[in-house]
């Protein structure tokens, strides 16, 4: 291979890598930024739908496990990145747990869970609902979620 | 004569062009990877990733996001008969793979439910194509998963109804009502 060939090939390699890296970075950077910015907003929806389906169709033990798992995850996320939407989700997750405990006639647990539900509801910037208002709102939400 | 003179230059040019195009491709992949590392570095610098719990939360969020992306591909290709089967299979394989390498224990049942729903969807698709054996196999895989998830009713009819409702949610259409109204 002659020196001229080596120079040509090296130049092609250098230009290719530089131009490719520049456009690769330029194209990916806004997408990566948007991905990280929205990750904590969109991804929990998958968890939330899972817990809702378990609440609607599974036995009480599995439904409770799913709701507690979601609540635990959202609380962890809330400590790192507080968000009103996830606070509302937490409120209704605890309200669903309260409804399940009430159905099992564990009234003390139900009230304790409803207190958590009310706390997260008011933390999210909404009015402090009474237990009956929380239950009524949950009923409407669950009827809508079935649609 | 002219061909002989142009020959070596033509070969040089072609080789240089191949190097240029392939290095541009490698460069763009590297650029995209650099963008990811850059973004992570920026977030670390601004204190968004300093908390030790963040690694766990971020990995869970990434896995949830992967589920969402797999679902999205399967959904947007639904109207194309060939592509829809391909992406439904891709969703199933992707979820199986995610389940194998998932680090977070709480994510296991989440993957299972979406995997089970994808199996029911695949069973419906195979049934429509008169592939009874595959349809039965997919439905049976779904039922095994739903049973492990503690579902009260995992009959074929009930599961098909749930999947239709889930698809209607994606479509933003009203559900199929049980009373037929």
Q: Would you spell out the secondary-structure blueprint of this structure?
A:
The complex is a heterodimer of chains A (147) and B (181).
Chain A: H1 3-42, H2 44-57, H3 60-80, H4 84-103, H5 107-123, H6 131-145
Helix pairs in contact in A: 2-3, 2-4, 3-4, 4-5
Chain B: H1 2-45, H2 53-76, H3 81-101, H4 108-128, H5 132-148, H6 156-171
What's the gist of this structure?
By secondary structure, chain A is mainly α.
Task: Explain this structure.
The complex is a heterodimer of chains A (147) and B (181). With 147 residues, chain A is mainly alpha-helical. Chain A folds into 2 domains: 42 residues; 102 residues, no CATH class. Chain A contains 6 helices and no strands. The longest helix of chain A has 40 residues. Chain A starts with a helix and ends with a helix. Chain B has 181 residues and is mainly alpha-helical. Chain B folds into 2 domains: 47 residues; 116 residues. The N and C termini of chain B lie far apart (84 Å). The chains are: A mainly alpha (147), B mainly alpha (181).
Features:
heterodimer; A: 147 residues; mainly alpha; 2 domains; 6 helices; 86% helix; B: 181 residues; 0% strand; disordered C terminus
Stretches of chain B where pLDDT is under 50 for at least 5 consecutive residues are 1-5, 174-181
Measured as a percent range, the helix fraction of chain B is over 70%
Shape of chain B: flat
**Cα gyration radius of chain B (Å):** 24 Å
What is the averaged pLDDT score of chain B?
84
Largest sheet properties of chain B: none
**Tally of helical segments of chain A:** 6
The most extensive contact between chains is: A-B, 55 and 54 residues
- Which consecutive residue ranges of chain A, at least 5 long each, have pLDDT under 50? none
**Per DSSP, what share of the residues of chain A sits in E-state strands of 2 or more residues?**
under 5%
Q: Compute the number of structural domains of chain A.
A: 2
Tally of alpha and pi helices of chain B? 6
Q: Domain count of chain B, please report it.
A: 2
- The ordered string of helix (H) and strand (E) elements of chain B is HHHHHH
Strand content of chain B: under 5%
| Ends distance of chain A | 71 Å
* Beta strand count of chain A: 0
The helix-and-strand class of chain A reads mainly alpha
């Amino acid at each position: 291979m002659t020196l001229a060939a080596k120079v040509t090939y090296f130049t092609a390699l250098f230009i290719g890598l530089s131009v490719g890296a520049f456009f690769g970075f330029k194209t990916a950077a806004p997408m990566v930024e948007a991905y990280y910015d929205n990750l904590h907003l969109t991804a929990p929806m998958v968890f939330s739908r899972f817990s809702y389906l378990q609440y609607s169709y599974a036995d009480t033990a599995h439904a409770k496990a799913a709701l507690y798992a979601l609540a635990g995850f959202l609380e962890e996320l809330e400590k790192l990145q507080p968000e009103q939407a996830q606070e509302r989700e937490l409120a209704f997750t605890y309200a669903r747990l309260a409804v399940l405990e009430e159905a099992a006639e564990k009234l003390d647990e139900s009230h304790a869970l409803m207190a958590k539900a009310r706390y997260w509801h008011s933390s999210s910037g909404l009015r402090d609902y009474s237990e009956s208002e929380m239950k009524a709102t949950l009923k409407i939400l669950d009827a809508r979620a079935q649609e | 004569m002219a061909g002989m003179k142009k020959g070596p230059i033509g070969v040089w040019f072609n080789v240089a062009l191949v190097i240029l195009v392939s290095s541009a491709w490698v460069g763009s992949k590297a650029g995209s990877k650099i963008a990811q590392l850059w973004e992570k570095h920026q977030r670390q610098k601004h204190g968004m990733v300093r908390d030790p719990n963040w690694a766990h939360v971020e990995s869970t969020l990434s896995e949830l996001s992967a589920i969402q992306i797999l679902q999205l591909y399967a959904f947007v290709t639904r109207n194309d008969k060939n592509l829809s089967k391909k992406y439904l299979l891709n969703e199933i394989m992707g979820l199986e793979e995610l389940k194998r390498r998932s680090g977070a224990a709480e994510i296991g049942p989440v993957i299972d439910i979406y995997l089970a729903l994808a199996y029911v969807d695949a069973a419906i698709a195979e049934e429509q194509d008169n592939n009874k054996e595959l349809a039965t196999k997919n439905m049976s895989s779904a039922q095994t998963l739903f049973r492990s998830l503690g579902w009260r009713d995992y009959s074929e009819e009930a599961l098909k109804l749930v999947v239709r409702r889930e698809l209607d949610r994606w479509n933003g259409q009203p559900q199929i009502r049980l009373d037929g109204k």
